[in-house]
Amino acid sequence: MAQVTPLEADIRRRIAAAGPMPVGEYMSLCLLDPAHGYYTTRDPIGAGGDFVTAPEVSQMFGELIGLWMAAVWKQMGSPSPVRVVELGPGRGTLMKDALRALKVMPGFSEAITLHFVEINPILKATQQRTLEGAPQQKSWHGSLAEVPSGPAIIVANEFFDALPVNQAVKRADGWHHRCVDVGADGRLAFTVAAEPIPHFSAIVPPALRDAPLESIFEWRDDKIAMDLGKRIADQGGAALVIDYGHTESALGDTLQAVARHAFADALSAPGTVDLTAHVDFEALAKAVEAMGAQGHGPIVQAQLLRRLGIETRAAALKAKADHARAAEIDLALARLIGAGRSGMGMLFKAAAFTHPALGTPPAF
Ligand code: SAH
Predict the structure, then answer these.
(1) What residues line ligand 1, using a CB cutoff of 6 Å?
(2) Distances from the Cα of 188 to the Cαs of 163, 255, 267, in angstroms?
(3) DSSP letter string over 22-46?
(4) Strand 262-264 relative to strand 256-259: parallel, antiparallel, unpaired?
(5) Residue 161 dihedral angles phi and psi, to the nearest 5°
(6) Domain residue ranges in the chain
(7) 260: left (phi > 0), else alpha (psi -120 to 50), else beta?
(8) Tens digit of each residue's pLDDT (9 = 90 or more) over 90-99
(9) Residues 148-176: pLDDT tens digits?
(10) Are the beta carbons of 61 and 99 closer than 8 angstroms?
(11) How would residue 145 be classed by pLDDT, with cut points 50, 70 and 90?
């Protein structure tokens, strides 16, 4: 057998002791294991890493989100202080670009205290470096629940897709956990748990309950979404969630492994490849709204960025750019709002959640 990663050895021991491991538990170990998890041991983002995100494609992305935050702050009645919270800030690039752009709103920059929710110590250090020059008070937290109370503007780009997803397979006697087991050839392989999950039909949306046999349904733990909804409903403010995924709950296996900018095998070298899955925006909204916040959208990323003025911003940047830089700006624009396979414009969606008294936030 080929060399196994330390995490794979651990997973094999767990399977030997407790039987096939549900996909959600597998993904959780791969991403979050304190010693060997993907998000605890590396900086995965950028040319030298495994994937590139919208704020890393162009400064325009963070700038436009900064303008969105400024308009929302005004809608909130310009509270001071106001907490600006980012979930999973990556390299801190989005916030750096946002803080520069939001200065156009008098008083906002001075009212902000910054809060970053991050579990990756390497990315936390990068965020601290990126934001060194920002004059605001900054703090880092392990979860949203740790952010002190008060009205808040929360942003999360490509955060929810990185949270572990569970999968169930429809069988004649009910829905069964999709699991990871050791196959006949000695390699890790997907399998289906022997027994159905009790009372599972209640979790599957009514429209999907008649799914054909062998259909796969994915769901995530709602805790973070509910914490976010409760915070906004109780303490005021708004959240902007941008991610890849689907507007309505759907069937299908979307678990995706990526390494070095290419698709990889989700079961090979656990802990060293990025695992994500589509965000189910219908399920997300249901959890946030159940706690009293009001949902808006989702809309596609292309629409969000167009309505916030990305084309005007690109033209302004190009007016000051040389030929090569102008071509780069065009490429970045196509990547962020384009509809094709390499574009993020249609695949990525944006949803906003607000205090019920706030009204509709910009772009929605
Ligand atoms: N928003 C950034 C990074 C996206 S990658 C960007 O757009 O570039 C996902 C981010 O979420 C990383 O910063 C990762 O370390 C963080 N993350 C993943 N799981 C997390 C969790 N459970 N709690 C807090 N942060 C998490």
Answers:
(1) 39, 45, 53, 55-56, 88-90, 94, 117-120, 123, 157-159, 162-163
(2) 22, 16, 6
(3) EHHHHHHHHHH-TTT-HHHH---BS
(4) antiparallel
(5) -65, -20
(6) 6-29+165-219, 54-164+220-304+348-354
(7) left
(8) 999 999 999 9
(9) 999 999 999 999 999 999 999 999 999 99
(10) no
(11) very high
pTM above 0.85, yes or no: yes
Tokens representing 157 are 């780009």
Given this model, what pLDDT does residue 129 score? 97
What sign results for the dihedral spanned by CA atoms 5, 273, 65, 283? negative
Q: Which two tokens stand for residue 82?
A: 């106001």
| Confidence at 200, pLDDT banded by 50, 70, 90 | confident
Evaluate whether 162 touches 123 at the Cβ level (below 8 Å).
no
How buried is residue 132: exposed, middle or buried, by Cβ count under 10 Å (0-12/13-18/19+)?
Answer: exposed
Q: How many angstroms does the Cα of residue 44 sit away from the middle of ligand 1?
A: 10
pLDDT the model gives residue 3: 75
Question: What pLDDT, on a 0 to 100 scale, did the predictor assign at position 2?
Answer: 60
- Give the residue, out of 59, 60, 120, 128, with the most ligand 1 atoms within 8 A of its beta carbon, to mutate for a pocket test: 120
Q: What is the pLDDT of residues 326-344, one digit of tens each?
A: 999 999 999 999 998 789 9
Distance CA 263, CA 258 (A): 5
| CATH code, 54-164+220-304+348-354 | 3.40.50.150
Contact predicate 63/103, CB 8 Å: no
